[in-house]
Amino acid sequence: MTKSRLSSAAAHFLILVFTAAAMSSRAPTPAGRALGAPIRILVYHDMEGLAGQDDWRTFLFSHPEKYPEGQKMLAADLNAVIDGLFAGGATSVDVVDAHGSGNPDPDVRRDLLDPRAKQVFRDKPFDPYVDITEPNTYDAVVAVAMHAKTGSKGFASHTITLGMDMLLNGKSITESEIVGYSWGRVGVPMIFVSGDDHLKKDLEVMPWIEFVVTKKATSASTVELRPVEEVHAEMREKAARAVRNIGKAQIMKLSTPMQAGLHAVPPASLASLNGVPGINYANETVTFTAPDFRAAYDGVIALVGAARATYPQVLTETVRKQPDGQKIMAEYGDALFERWMDYESGRWKPPAQVARTSKAYHGDR
Q1: pLDDT greater at residue 85 or residue 37
Q2: How many CA atoms lie within 13 Å of 124's alpha carbon, on the beta-carbon side?
Q3: Which residue in 169, 143, 138, 140 sits closest to 48, CA to CA?
Q4: How confident is the model at residue 30 (pLDDT cuts 50, 70, 90)?
Q5: In this predicted model, what pLDDT tens digit does every residue of 40-83 receive, in sequence order?
Q6: Is 90 exposed, middle or buried (0-12, 13-18, 19+ CB in 10 A)?
Q7: What is residue 157's predicted lDDT score, i.e. its pLDDT?
Q8: Three-state SS across the chain?
Q9: CB 67 within 8 A of CB 101
Q10: How many CB atoms sit inside 10 A of residue 197's CB?
Q11: Cβ(211)–Cβ(234) under 8 Å?
Q12: Vertex 94, ends 155 and 90: CA angle to 5°?
């Protein structure tokens, strides 16, 4: 062998060595995906299923003494999951706010969030569960800090809002399943969820997902916490594995047409709809037939508005307990009467809604 051929062979050997080393340091290619194909992940986050959280005030913007603590816990959970997703091979990660604490800004602070992740914003209000579901946008979705469904007795367990239980084909479902069914419309799987132990039980119907238990719920307002560092380590590990196993995840589909409905529990109620022609009501539950998932979801959201009409009863009870409660309630009654007279007389009109011009819509508020 000549010197030139020896040098060429040596160079070829070194290239093979360096190539092998580079490939070994790279995240494994997820099952069923071509080498080099982008892996785009959308992360939904709630705030009731956070690691280290045992106070419900931490997920409400109306409690400034506790909410900032919740924001820090939220960023920590998200960052652990995001780190795992990238380690597993994700090429991009977007985050959308699905909580709605009342904060006009996103619940997750940009300065605390992993800089590799982007936040989802739009120039008009949108429902993150259904309005951003588009084909060829993401390859998988995950959900962080979620909660169990109404009746599951998990920490702050509910569905959509207080006192509501969404039904699809006669079965009660969680918000995590709402996300899964919504993205199933365009063939995108849900691969990872975190939340309390009651949510894990709720999601036994989704055995392919990687689930991280953040805490053990002992009631709707009390928990037994796991060590946060332990939870975050598990989040990184399972998020990475979820990405690598995207090809094994199931797409959540429902046969159509479907039966949908809303069951209300206190402080909500659907009893006012009993007897209305065309309404299928029984035992605080209204059901209907929907042609597809979006129609079912929209119908349930409309019923949520009706069921929330009983919320003011709690306000009335609270006001009456105040020293001047009776006086306030009398003034409230007069204000209602005067509003009717002013409208009837043309002296008052509902104020026009002012459209926002800044691109500040980030999901639920």
Answers
A1: 85
A2: 4
A3: 143
A4: low
A5: 999 999 999 999 999 999 999 999 999 999 999 999 999 999 99
A6: buried
A7: 97
A8: CCHHHHHHHHHHHHHHHHHHHHHHHCCCCCCCCCCCCCCEEEEEECCCCCCCCCCHHHHCCCCCCCHHHHHHHHHHHHHHHHHHHHHCCCCEEEEEECCCCCCCCCCCCCCCCCCCCEECCECCCCCCCCCCCCCCCCCEEEEEEECCCCCCCCCCCCECECCEEEEECCEECCHHHHHHHHHHCCCCCEEEEEECHHHHHHHHHCCCCEEEECEEECCCCCEEECCHHHHHHHHHHHHHHHHHCHHHCCCCCCCCCEEEEEEECCCCCCHHHCCCCCCEEECCEEEEEECCHHHHHHHHHHHHHHHHHHCHHHHHHHHHCCCCHHHHHHHHHHHHHHHHHHHHCCCCCCCCCCCCCCCCECECC
A9: yes
A10: 20
A11: no
A12: 105
Q: Which residue has tokens 């002296």?
A: 347
- For residues 107 and 61, give the distance between their C-alpha atoms in angstroms, rounded to a whole number: 9
Tell me the residue length of the chain: 365
Token pair in block for residue 52: 């280290």
Average pLDDT on 131-149 reads: 97
pLDDT (tens digit per residue) in 121-133: 998 999 999 999 9
Q: Looking at residue 36, what is its pLDDT? A: 74
Token duo for residue 304: 């949520």
Q: Is the dihedral of CA 51, 121, 254, 138 positive or negative?
A: negative
CA distance 21 to 18: 5
The residue whose two tokens read 């909660």 is 147
Q: What single-letter amino acid sits at 148? A: A
Q: Cis peptide before 38, with omega less than 30 degrees from 0?
A: no
